[in-house]
Amino acid sequence: MLTAFLACVMLSFGVGATSAWAEGEALQGTLTNNGAPVAGVKIKAFTQDGAPVGEATSDEQGKWSVPVPGPGSYKVDLDQSTLPSGVTVTNGRPSLTPSVADGQARNVLFPLGGGSGGTATGNQNQPAAPSAPSEWDRIANLFYSGIHFSLIIALAALGISLIFGTTGLTNFAHGELVTFGALMAFLFNVTIGLPLVLSGVIAVAIGAGMGYVQDRAFWGWLRKRRTNLVTMMIISIGLSLAVRYLYLYFFGGDSRAFSEYNSQPGEKYGPFLIAPKNLVADAIAIAVLVAVSMALLMTRLGKATRAVADNPALAAASGINVDRIIRLVWTLGGGLAALSGVLLGVYQNVSFQMGFQILLLIFAAVTLGGFGTAWGALLGSLVIGLFIQFSTYWIPSELKNVSALAALILILLFRPQGILGRRTRIG
């Protein structure tokens, strides 16, 4: 039933979601340093699988362009050895993964600095930076990136932690709820043409409804049959695989962007260089996290939820409708996951496996903070997000997720119950 419902929804993407390859797609940009064009810099483009697509060298006006075979997500590398002496990529990101839409020439932004400073942009009319950012500026930007990513992870981690706390289920299909939220926002924003903000609100509402439907039609039925938790966990893995490839079939394997807020340039806030869309996303995430946390502490439903998480049998004996509370938690978890997916789609575009790609980080955050504790999920997300971003200061960005999971293992060797988890007797 659940898979059939998803199939009906995904059919709404129709032909428009699977665009044909067309001529005219390209990656391009204009490299400048303090307003002066930077010539002779090599740019290379690759597919997501690492196959070379082409390369270009910036001309006397700093312009470069690499045609690509069709729409999709590509990896673009700036060869730093070809930069003039003293000029560097100021944000420490010489490799980017932009997405190209059907028939689109995508501008790629590289901030350059050195000497008196400067920028590399896809628009030569962009204002030049007044001075080259220092190492402290880079550290400040890594710190902000870590906080921003932490908030996105925290939304999904809070939902999965509440579900585990009330049911004991380790739900490996939670990542597909994150993807579902992003895909619904994409459907209403790109395919139907609604504003992204309205599309996001609708996607969160549908995500919450999907959480309710999952528990009422599937997980609740398994609980009534007294299915053990290990079996339910294995079922969640199978459900995750089925739904993910359903997404792939209808949405396609390309990474795509929303129709609004793409390639938004950053603005200076002291040492921080932040795109305004990220500040709005941060404000939304913080407001939702605070509201949910306060509701858990101060409302009757929140207290009932905590009672069910502590002892379901005692909660039922005291008159609490345990099934109703669990269903409420699934609804809340679905909405939080959908919101996480929408914000993640704004941050790094939409793909069929975006939820799966951060699922291990979500589990790492929940495990690190302490399974089943809402505050632990928030704290664990903060630690994981900051560690991932700061690790790129010393190691290649491709290894940042590995470093976070390695840190998780080391921490749990000394505190197996997590930061805020409680010790339990075994045996």
Please characterize this protein's 3D structure.
The chain has 427 residues and is α+β, with helices and mostly antiparallel strands. It has twelve helices and 14 strands. The protein has two domains: 26-133, Immunoglobulin-like, CATH 2.60.40; 140-414, ABC transporter involved in vitamin B12 uptake, BtuC, CATH 1.10.3470. The chain is 53% helix and 12% strand. The strands form four sheets. Strands 1, 2, 5, 10 and 12 form a five-stranded mixed β-sheet that branches. Strands 3, 4, 6, 8 and 9 form a five-stranded antiparallel β-sheet that branches. Strands 7-11 form a two-stranded antiparallel sheet. Helix 10 packs parallel to helix 12 (400-414). The protein starts with a helix and ends in a 13-residue tail after the last helix. The model is unreliable at 14-23 and 116-132 (pLDDT under 50). It is found in: Cell membrane. It holds the Pfam family BPD_transp_2. Keywords: Amino-acid transport, Cell inner membrane, Cell membrane, Membrane, Signal, Transmembrane, Transmembrane helix, Transport. Residues 1-22 form the signal peptide.
